[in-house]
Amino acid sequence: MVHGLAAQSGGLLRIHSKPNVGTTIELCLPMAKTATQTADGDVPSLDPAPYIGPCTVLIVDDDLLVMTGMSAMIEDMGHTPIEAHSGAEAIAKLDSGTPIDVVITDHAMPAMTGLQLARHLQEKYPELPVILATGYAELPGDAMSLGILRLAKPCNQYDIAMAIQSALGSSRQVRRRLVGCAD
What we know:
The protein is an alpha/beta fold. Helix content is 36%, strand content 21%. The chain has helices at 2-8, 64-76, 87-95, 114-124, 157-168, 170-182, and strands at residues 12-18, 22-28, 56-60, 80-84, 102-106, 130-134, 149-152. Helix 2 (64-76) links the parallel strand 3 (56-60) and strand 4 (80-84). The chain is globular, with a radius of gyration of 19 Å. The protein starts with a helix and ends with a helix. The relative contact order is 0.15.
């Protein structure tokens, strides 16, 4: 994963190892472009992510650390995260009737890739939006033509919020706001 991130960013990963001496790992990344500064020297922040109201997000990832981080970010946004550690577990949760608004799935998983899961979900639950989260620059298959959104890893809370907004669409945002106004 680290090697893929480095290569995708135009950098490289070097590992030097000698028996009975140790291992040195070098991660080389290109220098970031300087952020535009305002007149007072502050770096402007990103626009806030759109508010779409609370929703239930099924997160599918075989990496516990990644799953925990994404789950925490989704919960901080006011959404309910539900975790599945494999494609089969995700399918079982959906088949059990657990209400899910959107699925965010890792691509590189054993037994069933995220793309295979997304294809299965499109057949069985065609209205359920799926976001494919991956650190790979290019995906096998034709994810874009299937209408599957891609979320580049690593990602931050803003990236996740924008992906969820794109997956759920603006009609949900308007509908939720109108429901909120009527109360």
